[in-house]
Write a structure and sequence with these properties.
The structure holds two protein chains of two kinds. Chain A is an alpha/beta fold. Chain A contains nine helices and six strands; from the N terminus they run βαβαβαβαβαβαααα. In chain A, α7 packs across α8. The longest helix of chain A is centred in the last third of the chain and has 15 residues. The N and C termini of chain A lie far apart (42 Å). Chain B is α+β, with helices and mostly antiparallel strands. Chain B folds into two domains: 106 residues; 127 residues, Histidine kinase-like ATPase, C-terminal domain (Heat Shock Protein 90). Chain B is built from six helices and five strands. Chain B has a five-stranded mixed β-sheet. In chain B, α4 runs antiparallel to α6. The chains are: A alpha/beta, B alpha+beta. At the A-B interface, α1 of A face α1 of B.
Chain lengths: 224, 243
Amino acid sequence: MQQLIMPTQTNPKILVVDDHASVLEGTVNSIRQQYAEAKISVAQTAEKALGIVKEGQPDLMVVDLCIPQRNGESAKIETGLQLLRDLMQHYPTLNLMIQSANTASLVRLKPAINAHEGGFTIAAKSLSLPDMLTRVDWALQGLVFTPKEMRSGLEMKSEWLQMLKLAFEGGLQDKAIAEQMNISERTVRHYWTKIQDALGIYPDEGKNIRIHTGIRARQEGLID
Amino acid sequence: MINDWANHHTVVLYVAAFTCSGILVFFYMNFYQVRRAFQWWSGRQFRQQWLESDRIRNSVMQDLFALYRGIEISQLQGADTILQNSKIWLEQAGQIQRSLEQLSHHLSPLFLEDSLPLAIQATISDWQEKTQHSIEVKMPSDWQANVQEQNQMILSTLVEILHMISSHQLSSPDSVEYPIQICLAQRGNLAELLIQIEGAQSEGEAIVCSKEWIYLRRCFHYLTGGKCTYRYKKDTLTWCLRW
C-alpha cells in the first residue's frame, strides 16, 4: 500500500462539507490519518458551511458539490457550485479541496478558479486514500490542481509569461519579480501555482519544482 | 363554346392546385406535429436517464466511497480494527447491492422480456412504494408474449400517464388522492390497457387538454401502431391504450 506523505502543516483548521453522513465520517477519519491534531468541523448544508466560515476562515475547506442549501431540501450540484462562487468571491485566499463524484461540473467555474488566490485542488471520490491526502496537502500549501480535461490547451496569461521571462531569462527571485511587476509577493506565488497547474507540474519527491517548471516552459516554447 | 371549355378547365386547374396545396399543408402540419411529439418523447427519455445517472452518483457511489475509505483506514490501523469493522462493511455492501438491484430494474423493468402483466405489476408496485398512492391492479393470469420493445413502450406510456396524474394532483389546491384502477385485457386480437381514475374531474380535464397528453398519444400511435384515447363516464376518466 502506498505510504502517506509527510504533511506540511500539522494542526490545520479544516471544514468538511458533505450531506452524506457516512461519507462525512469517512472523510474526517481519512484526514485524521495524516492530521491527527487538526481541528475538524463539519457541515451538511451550504447554509451551515457559510455560517462556519463567517465565524472564522478555516485553513482548508473540503467540499462536496452535490449538497442541499439547507436542512430538508434536496441536494443539487448547482447549490455546491454557488457555494464555491460565494466562497471564492468573499474569501479569495481560502484553500479549497473539492471532493465529489461530479467534478466535471467544475468546468462552469473555470474563470473563478483561475482568478482564485488560495489553493484549489480537485479529488474524485474514486481516488485512493494516499492520493486524496496528497491533494489535501497541496491545497493547504496553496497549490492548484485541476484535471487535464478542465485545461483545454495551454492557456497562459500575459502576466504569467512575463513572470516566466523575469524568473528564467532574467534570473530574478520572487521579491524582485514582485517589484518589477508592481504586484505583491503573494500574487507572484499565486501565479507560480497557476503556471504549474497549466503545465501539469505538481510537487514530486526528489524534483525541484521551479527548475522543473523552467524545463517545461522551454519545452512548450514559452521562454527561450 | 371554346371560352366555356377554357373557363371550365381553368376552374378545374384552380381546384386541383388548391387541393394539392391543402394536402401539402396537411402533410407538413402533420410532420411538424409528429416531430414535436418525438422531440418531447426524446426529452423525457433523456430526463429519465439523467435521473438514473444522478441516483448512481448520489447514492451508490457515495455508499461505495464510504465502504472503500473504511477499508483503507482499517488497513492502516491493523487487524483488530479490520475485524471490528467487518460487520459494518457487510451491511454497507448489502445496501450497495440493493441500490444496484433497484437501479437495474429502473433501467430495464422486471419481467419485460417474459410477461407484460407481471412487468406492469412490478412497475406499479415500485410506483406505489415511491408515491404511496393506492392503485388497484387487475391483470390476466395468461398472456400472449409481446415484443419486448412494444412492452417497453406500453410500460413507459403507463408511467407517463401516472406522472401526469401525480403532478396534476400535487398542483391542485386540495391535493386529494383519487383512486386509480389499472386493468389489462385481451379484446379479440387486440390488447387493451385501461387506466381509470374516479372523481378527478378538473385534474382529468387539465391532463387531456395538455400538450404532453397530445404528444404522448402521437408517440404511442407511431411507436406501437396502436391507439391511445380517453373517455369520460359520470365522474370517471378512463385512458385506453389499444394495440
